Amino acid sequence: METSRYRSNRSGGILGQQSASASAASTASSNNSASSTASTGVSITWTRSCQATCSKQPCLSCAGNPLSTSNIQSSAPAAAAAAAVAAAASAAETEHRIYLRSHRQRRNQQLLQIQQQQQQQQVQRQGQQRQRPIRDGTRRQRRHRTDKAKLIQHYLKKNGRLEGMVRLVDGVHANEGNVEIYHSGKWGSICDDEWDLREATVVCRELGFSDVVLETHNSMYGPARYPFWMDNLYCVGSENNLTNCRFDGWGISDCEDSEAAGVICKPGPISKLSVATTTTTTMSPTTTTTTTTMKTISNSSDGSAGDGSAGDASVTKRLQQDMAPAMRIKDVVGSKSKIRLRGGRSKEEGRVEVKIGKNANDWGLVCGDGWSLFEAGVVCRELGLGYAQNALQTDFFGGNRSSLALSGVRCHGSEKSLIDCLHDRFGAVSCPGAANNIASVVCASEMADLVPDQHEMMRTAHLEDRQLFFLQCAMEENCLAASAYQIQKDDPYGWHLETRRLLRFTARIANMGTADFKPFIPKHMWEWHACHMHYHSMEVFAHFDIINSYGVKVAEGHKASFCLEDNQCTHDTQPVYKCANYGDQGISVNCTDTYHHNIDCQWIDITDIDPGIYTFKVVINPEFKVAEMSFDNNAVVCTLYYGQQYATLFNCSLQRP
Length: 657
Known about the structure:
alpha+beta, 7-stranded mixed beta sheet, 6-stranded mixed beta sheet, 12 helices
């Protein structure tokens, strides 16, 4: 405000000086003009036009005006007066510029002083805060934050060590059990879909066992304890860890807790790492927990074991002797033993009980380890209740562990009675898993029965060479051999130009049963495949295998049921199931569903096998997830002749998978 006021006063003074100078010059000019006019005697005359012009602009421009510019310039005193006016204006402008420069400098100095004062005040406040004493609450908060940071670091370090690690749980011995894998800070189960010896080999090798004895399905060691981390695993067998195999993705699964995958590893010398497995063993009527630990064994050149070889050898010998061979149930309970269902809402369902003694109340339960549709089918047929619709591992129908009498029951499916099946233990049995692991069944009088058409396969089988560029959608569904994915990994830019050799064929499946065949997954849980633009109602509907003369699988394929529908029907049967517009999927009685050879994944990738004679095998409903009258006609087995230019199938027959 002080500057603006000074600036206005200063401007007023300059303008006042200019006005005074102009008045003095006008007065002198008027006097000179008057004297000049008097001496010459010239009279000033004004014209109307000049008067009109001078009324709007200075009269110095009028021709008849004695004060015009030409007349003033002709006078020396007038010129001096004009010069004085210009000099005064220039001096005033110079003085004003000097003032502005000095004012700007003073303003900058004031701003600098203010900034320095603020900095000094901030330093003083910081010093006061340092000198302020720390309260006990603040110390506790800082200590809590430090402990929390250490806990997080320990958690991350632990996850890094355990990520991808596998373990065996609920087994009687350290070399067997359901497989669990650690991911993202949690343990999870593995589904038995596509689970075979190759995946089991990877697990046993990772745990340090010398070899694998058997892969297990249907929650052989009790229901899954945690949600499924992995489903549809595809391993070559040489991987160091299951995470190196192909699978659907972490946590993506359509499996139930009765579909946990497991292994039985060869109980021999252990290399690489130690195995410490905690197993839960149930002994009627009490439950005890036993921990079995096996130390690391390193194989030396002389065949001796290091790190306590005597103790380790005794552990291995004891495990081998303790694995008693399975025997028939009737050899223990007698050939006159009976079975019954109890606890169901109707006579067609309930828990399975076996007569184990002579007294009227001597009935025992069956453990649900490995309980499947094969065992349930034998029970329903023996009781005259038709076919097995569902095999359950649950205590929904009652019962408790104290009444368990049998475990490890395994049937072929064609037995007339359950006592003709095999079992592991009788009496004080070991039933893995939770308390609800009790064998139960649901029976039905009508059932579907799928039968593949072997003649159509022989007629349509042929070879095709196709670039990977046209098989990208099929690669997303794991329909090619493992070498195709290795090519994609090794050559990320030119892999799509590689060619694969495919053995194509048509699969026609008929429903010859008495009830419609429907997917076991509810419609709202069907999986959408964006690349093929369709829904999968069953992840695995068919398996395709090529086996050499040594019984080794050398090539394989699989087919998901993306569209189960009635293509052709006989006996005046009208089609019911259509896939269009998200329709219902299934196969009606006396109708067939046809997967033509030109459909994606309707092939086996045989790029990596040599020409020769092989066994060709196709299995429908390979995981037995959907109940049928019989599974003895679900496989087509043929002889495959593979030449350099063509392939043919012959000697095909229907067999049991």
